[in-house]
Amino acid sequence: MKQPLMTQESQVYSHSRFSLDSKQLMSLIFQPTAELLYKSKYRIKVQDGPSVDFILRGTGKDLIKRKV
């Protein structure tokens, strides 16, 4: 089964109120509209720090039926 790969780049600017050691909270919202297997690749770029690549995979709607 084909897995659509969606890549989106967003840029987040730092604010002077955050120190270099402070943690930043980030959330990703996945709202699929079709019963497919999805795969999304994300890259977090950190100015003067390490960058991180990660892949999230999931299914749309109720592709995998659950027993109740």
From TrEMBL:
It comes from the Eukaryota. This is Uncharacterized protein. It comes from Paramecium tetraurelia.
